[in-house]
Amino acid sequence: MVAYVVVDTKITNAEVYETYKAQAKPIAEKYGGVYRTRGGEMDVLENDLWAPTRIVIVEFPSMQAARDFVHSEEYQPVKAIRHANAECTLAIVDGV
């Protein structure tokens, strides 16, 4: 069953964050990731629990593939770029 990495990102340094985006995509793709949305236009219709900023959704073939990507050795230095230049919430969720 597919799974999704869902990330809400508040970018604090847009110039450096472009480096993150360029490096993260091929790593995600190596683990079967397909970007479904990457910070496009958004209408927030209800926000009792959460007020999203910028949503990225990456589909993976399974929960394990998503976990393998997030925890992979090659992603760790790239993740550090994200952490240094954005505030994020990240979740991995089962698809239906």
Short overview:
The chain has helices at residues 14-30, 63-71, 76-85; strands at residues 3-11, 34-38, 55-60, 86-94. The chain has 96 residues and is an alpha+beta fold. The protein has one domain (3-42, 64-94): Alpha-Beta Plaits (2-Layer Sandwich), CATH 3.30.70.100.
Descriptive notes:
- The structure is a single chain.
- By secondary structure, the chain is an alpha+beta fold.
- It has a single domain (3-42, 64-94), classed as Alpha-Beta Plaits (2-Layer Sandwich), CATH 3.30.70.
- The protein has 3 helices and 4 strands, in the order βαββααβ.
- The protein has a 4-stranded antiparallel beta sheet.
- Helix 1 (14-30) runs antiparallel to helix 3.
- The mean pLDDT is 97.
Count of individual helical segments: 3
Strand content: 25-35%
Q: Enumerate the strands of the largest sheet in spatial order, edge to edge or round the barrel.
A: 2-3-1-4
Helix content: 25-40%
Q: How does the overall form come out from the CA principal axes?
A: globular
Q: Work out the radius of gyration.
A: 13 Å
Largest beta sheet, briefly?
A: 4 strands, antiparallel
The CATH architecture can be named as 2-Layer Sandwich
Residue-averaged pLDDT: 97
SSE series: EHEEHHE
For the secondary structure, the number of strands is 4
Number of separate domains: 1
